[in-house]
Design brief:
Distance between the termini: 30 Å
Shape: globular
Strand content: 15-25%
Mean pLDDT: 96
Radius of gyration: 23 Å
Number of strands: 22
Number of helices: 12
Low-confidence stretches: none
Structural class: alpha/beta
Helix content: 25-40%
């Protein structure tokens, strides 16, 4: 898409990921002239969204709600699907549960209620969907999903951004690349545009409203150390190198209210040999999320977490934190012949360690064979009777073991043993600026800052401690759409 420089428009959107482009498209639908400014060069555009798995968590009452989103499927294909229902009330409750009740209730309610209408709107923009392979299993000829985690965009994050950029091109939305925001333009207390630095020099872009959608600060080692704490400056970054937090700091300096968990982040287990920063050819394929069917041990050969605490979609975003706290920030996911077939497809990008005995495995991992053997024997001896069911929380647990394994506890006793080394990979940060349900940025007195909107990872108040899979992209799109609509109304009515 060719970039066209404009110095005046109705709405400026800062950023070019899912949250930004949904805001731009919604504003354009309302008749606004829109300019998107992106710090990255064209070949690196798309923000963290481009590196994502493309999973969107949305509310639905049953299969009937999914059919308009997947119109090409035959009745025979639908007969093979078990997705249950995922009501607005459950969506709301899931977020409140995993955030220990700290998520903003009004924002969470809006996210849940608007999720399905936003999915339909995105489908109308030309986005095509596929069944997610994450946390789904094939059993007895049926494709079974954890309710809420059902659909991802075709070709994942790359596909998502392809569809959104194509929609922007059709809509006549202008994009300016390698344009780094330096500050806000203001008049009479209102935000009236932005100043950016380009290859040609400084440029003031006047507008009726500004939408901030430039991500969090996860790619800044300095800000990670300042807010997240010890050792976070050393973690691997799963996504774009461009989310370094300057825009967030500018908004705070302007008077925006800080919101959310500034010490929290979405951090997952990833391949221990993953690159330091996300590489587009790998996208999200360094994730290692089949750990509920494993035992995880640290470099000392000890288990350190309940691998089966809950469905993976409710635990994966906090597992990285637990791995970071281990010696060397490395852990090992150990599977045996009974469970290795349950590994999701992304494991194919890694190089496993395979052994016929626990002692051989320990030597290959540079762990004391006596310690690892004892860990495995104690785990196996603590397993309680019950039926293993990989498609649901099965209650097949251990007893008298610390830490417990609450579900999917099968003995590690059938070689070959297959191990994937993992470390902590940060996806995005939870702290940001406060918004209301119309995506208006709030000041420290909880009053809207005139002309300023925000969506996506730059906003706070949604996630604390943990996060349900697919809620991040959905949050960006729901509030992107709202930001665009209200920014357009604000700007075009002036």
């Amino acid at each position: 898409m060719a970039s066209e420089v404009k110095r005046r428009c109705h709405v400026v959107v800062v950023g070019a990921g899912n949250a930004a482009l949904t805001a731009a498209l919604a504003a354009r639908e309302k008749g606004a002239d829109v300019l998107v400014v992106e710090k990255a060069p064209l070949k690196e555009r798309g923000g963290n969204s481009r590196f994502s798995g493309g999973l969107f968590r949305f509310a639905y009452e049953g299969i009937g709600d999914l059919k308009p989103v997947m119109p090409a499927l035959s009745s025979e294909e639908w007969d093979r699907v078990e997705a249950g229902s995922y009501l607005v009330s459950r969506y709301f409750e899931d977020i409140m549960r995993v955030t220990r009740g700290r998520a903003d209730r009004e924002l969470t309610r809006t996210l849940a209620e608007d999720s399905y209408p936003t999915i339909l709107w995105m489908t109308g923009l030309g986005i095509e969907w596929a069944w997610t392979s994450v946390w789904s299993v094939e059993l007895a000829g049926k494709r079974r999903f954890n309710p809420g985690s059902v659909l991802e965009v075709k070709n994942k994050g790359l596909g998502l951004m392809h569809y959104l950029f194509a929609a922007c091109e059709r809509a006549g939305i202008h994009l300016l690349y390698e344009a780094e925001m330096l500050g806000f333009l203001q008049s009479s207390g209102s935000v009236k545009g932005v100043r950016v630095k380009t290859a040609e020099g400084l440029m003031d872009i006047e507008s009726g409203a500004v939408v901030l959608a430039s991500g969090g600060f996860e790619a800044s080692a300095e800000m990670r150390a300042r807010y997240l704490g010890l050792n976070w400056e050393k973690v691997k970054v799963r996504g774009t190198r461009h989310n370094t937090g300057e825009t967030l700091q500018m908004a705070l300096d302007l008077g925006a209210k800080p919101a959310g968990d500034f010490q929290g982040s979405h951090a997952t287990p990833i391949d221990a040999n993953a690159p330091a920063v996300g590489q587009i050819q790998l996208t999200d394929k360094t994730n290692r999320l089949s750990y509920p069917y494993s035992i995880m041990v640290n470099t000392l050969g000890k288990r350190f977490i309940d691998e089966g605490e809950d469905l993976g979609q409710y635990t994966y975003a906090k597992i990285g934190h637990a791995i970071l706290a281990q010696p060397g920030a490395v852990a090992y996911q150990i599977f045996d012949k009974k469970t290795v077939q349950l590994l999701e497809e992304r494991y194919s990008t890694g190089a496993p360690v395979v052994a016929e005995t626990i002692e051989e495995l320990a030597r290959k991992l540079a762990i004391s064979p006596d310690v690892l053997r004892q860990t495995v024997e104690e785990f196996n001896g603590a397993i309680q009777p019950g039926e293993f069911n990989p498609a649901a929380k099965d209650g097949k647990s251990t007893a008298g073991l610390n830490p417990l394994k609450s579900n999917w506890a099968l003995p590690i006793d059938t070689p070959p043993y297959t191990v994937y080394p993992v470390t902590c990979g940060i996806t995005f940060t939870y702290g940001g600026i406060a918004i209301d349900t119309n995506a208006r940025v709030l000041d420290t007195s909880d009053k809207p800052i005139s002309g300023l909107y925000a969506t996506g990872e730059i906003t706070g108040g949604f996630f604390y401690y943990n996060y349900p899979g697919g809620a991040g992209l959905m949050r960006g799109a729901v509030f992107g759409r709202r930001a665009g609509m209200h920014a357009a109304a604000d700007a075009t009515n002036q």
